[in-house]
Amino acid sequence: MGQWEASAGASDEWYTPPYIFEALGETFDMDVAAPMLLPSWIGDRLNPTSPQGGRRWLWKDSLETDWAGFVWMNPPFGGRNSLAPWLKQFFDHGNGIALTPDRTSALWFRDAWERADLALFMPKVRFIRPDGSVGKQPANGTCLWASGNRAINALERAASVGLGILAQPRKVAA
User: Fold this and answer.
1) CATH 3.40.50 fits 3-167, yes or no
2) Quick check: pTM over 0.90?
């Protein structure tokens, strides 16, 4: 995640700031694009040692693995159209929240818009490096995608505390 700060050979490991999880007010059953090792500064929402238990973290072969429960997805932002397979599997699963850049001109974004139940556009997010330091602000904003009723409720809750602007995709009959 975070190609805006990447240089050749730089890590794709970037973490979602805790304030996003606090605003969503949810605990997830599965993180489908988790780092192999979670740093100690990550809070209970995505901490595998949390007493709430019962969660899974996928850090490899995520797109070849069955997903279960209410999922969190902050996939590697990577290169051009690299988000397309992640978003396809996310919407096929149909139960969770995904975080992506808000690149409205990208084909993958338009495809996601057609499948989303709700979207929340956030100001630029300052993602966190593995060492806990805050990265430079990216050049674009960020979007949270809802799939399913629980995710819709979480995005509405987050919008009510000022996390971003809600948008309801309008389905147009062909």
Assistant:
1) yes
2) no
